[in-house]
User: Which sequence fits this backbone?
């Protein structure tokens, strides 16, 4: 497969519409799949999650429900979910049966696997007629197994056990050449992400989300970007029933990469073709970044992955050089690499807004050849070194961070605050 086909495939595979935060969506999809294979009266549902997924599903809004919680995500999938709808499972429910969902939720037993550092969902559903176990690994919509007893051990591959993803063989130069040369009609599909995420932002602004942030008023570039992405994220995290175009498994990352680049292009009069090519590059860089960090991590990818990709896309849109694009990368990672992911909730809109704002600043300063030195902190001499260093920090130095954050969140729930 040549590089154009590789990068197109990587981008297409990782941007899909999803209604609701993708962790509740993944739980509902796994649950609905189990229910499709287990008729009869539900007796028990044993749900096992990795810590990162548990963290992100605990307190985020669920489309169609006015309550929150992991057991409710599972019950919603069991009662009203249709696995045929994939990642848009929560956006295509004709009627939500709230009373039945609340009846089923207490039958869901939730636990976590601390020894699994990547995305993992396993639901064992027992009815009066059947017992089935469904396992989701690695990606939110990747159903790895549907089993009946006796069950085999199914776990995602540990770090270092699989070959490096093919995209890691690409350099920044390869990605820029791809953006320059890919036939425009082959990246037109990216415009759907722009339009979809614009609608989410408009819904957020209409509902008053992000209203009152005085520093974000006005039509200047930076506040316009932060207001646009912040409103979209806040609306999504609160459970607004509209689809978002995700990127690498996350609606907030999709909001960041699409709307940051789009808002800059719209404000500065960049034409549609140049914007589409900038979006292709930004998405390719985002996929590359996430290939090092995994589906879920203790740090906010809206800064170090989608935000960084957006910064590169902005430099490209404005005619910058490859050196300036790499400078934007260093400016981003030198500033937001320590922003933690402490679970999905409305507060993510602040982090999305920070990531988008930093992307604009990183790009604009890089265009003036003001960039951080390659030997500054954990930075590096090229794109691969940047992410090898960041992966070492995230997967090694922050290995216990998710456990600490989940403990804090569970303690707060037990205290009723």
Assistant:
């Amino acid at each position: 497969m040549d590089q154009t086909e590789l990068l197109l495939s990587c981008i297409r595979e990782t941007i899909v519409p999803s209604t609701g935060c993708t962790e509740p969506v993944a739980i509902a999809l796994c649950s609905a799949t189990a229910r499709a294979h287990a008729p009869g009266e539900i007796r028990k549902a044993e749900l096992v999650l990795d810590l990162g997924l548990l963290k992100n599903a605990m307190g985020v809004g669920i489309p169609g429900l006015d309550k929150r919680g992991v057991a409710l995500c599972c019950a919603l999938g069991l009662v009203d979910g249709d696995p045929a709808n994939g990642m848009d499972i929560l956006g295509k429910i004709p009627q939500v049966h709230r009373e039945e969902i609340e009846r089923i939720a207490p039958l869901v037993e939730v636990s976590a696997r601390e020894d699994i550092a990547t995305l993992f969902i396993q639901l064992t559903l027992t009815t009066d007629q059947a017992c089935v176990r469904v396992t989701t690994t690695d990606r939110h919509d990747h159903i790895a197994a549907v089993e009946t007893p006796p069950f085999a051990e199914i776990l995602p591959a540990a770090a270092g056990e699989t070959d490096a993803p093919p995209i890691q063989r690409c350099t920044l130069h390869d990605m820029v050449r791809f953006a320059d040369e890919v036939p425009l009609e082959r990246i037109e599909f990216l415009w759907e992400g722009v339009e979809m995420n614009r609608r989410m932002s408009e819904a957020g602004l209409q509902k008053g989300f992000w209203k009152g942030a005085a520093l974000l008023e006005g039509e200047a570039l930076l506040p316009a970007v932060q207001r646009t992405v912040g409103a979209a994220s806040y609306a999504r995290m609160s459970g607004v029933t509209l689809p978002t175009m995700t990127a690498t498994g996350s609606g907030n990352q999709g909001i960041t990469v699409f709307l940051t680049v789009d808002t800059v292009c719209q404000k500065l009069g960049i034409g549609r073709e140049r914007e589409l090519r900038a979006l292709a590059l930004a998405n390719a860089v985002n996929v590359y970044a996430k290939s090092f960090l995994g589906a879920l991590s203790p740090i906010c990818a809206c800064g170090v992955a989608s935000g960084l990709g957006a910064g590169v896309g902005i430099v490209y849109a404005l005619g910058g050089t490859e050196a300036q694009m790499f400078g934007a990368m260093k400016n981003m990672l030198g500033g937001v690499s320590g922003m933690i992911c402490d679970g999905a909730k409305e507060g993510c809109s602040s982090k999305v807004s920070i990531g988008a704002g930093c992307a604009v600043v990183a790009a604009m300063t890089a265009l003036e050849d003001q960039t951080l030195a390659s030997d500054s902190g954990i930075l590096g001499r090229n794109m691969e070194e940047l992410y090898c260093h960041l992966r070492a920090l995230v997967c090694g130095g922050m290995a216990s961070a998710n456990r600490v954050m989940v403990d804090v969140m569970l303690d707060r729930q037990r205290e009723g605050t």
Observations:
- The first strand starts at residue 17 and ends at 19.
